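Below is a typical protein record.
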Amino acid sequence: MTSTRPQRCEGKLALVTGGAQGLGRAHCIRLAQEGARVLASDINGAGAAETAEIINAEMGAGTAFSVEHNVTDPMSWEAAVTAARENMGGLNVLVNNAGIGVPGNIEECDFADWQRCFSINVDSIFHGCQKALPLMRDHAPGSIINISSIAGLIASDTMPAYNASKAAVWMLSKSIALHCAKKNMQIRCNSVHPTFVDTPILDGTARAAQLDKDVLLEKLARQIPLRFVGEPNDIANAVVYLASDESRFMTGAEIKLDGGISAM
């Protein structure tokens, strides 16, 4: 890809979890388009490799790499950080994007599902930051970007596990930000809080609700003041901002990308 304008993430070295599809793939592509080198990680190794192939076909070989990665496993995190060091020469942007939702209100939610939700949504960030910070410190300034959800700020009676885990991401991000600032690491940490976004997750939601995808999108849009469902790049553009030095004075904060829901 050729461009005459400055690339906002030139020289950045980014690891993006959940990079096989949806938001994770969008983050990887937009970061690469803005000059970053990217390591797409996912438990779906083939999907992560496909993301890297898409990027390299557009931006040139050596722009993107991939690694199979179980974000709940500390040893797998060590392997992912090693892959960042070996393939990109370092790491200064960590996008903790991997996450899931589980069904069931407080009476119906299975405890094993609750634990799995926290393991993927929250424990992954704990492990990831512990394993990545030593390498990020060597390549500062840096940025940790944790993908939470508007559901981490606004509750629903139907998703206690998702609400609680994404709220934990929000507060964990602030603690990490303060730690890095106190240690003068020159590494920032912020959270991003999207509402409904048109990703493959909504395909499964439509099937579960026995609705046509377009009908579901219209139904969801009616809940949003701006009256439309977000697209992956609406979130990825915020990730680019947080990864870039444009946001150098922003840490311990949250970006709400919710079409106005939280203003109601």
Q: What stands out?
A: The chain has a mean pLDDT of 96.
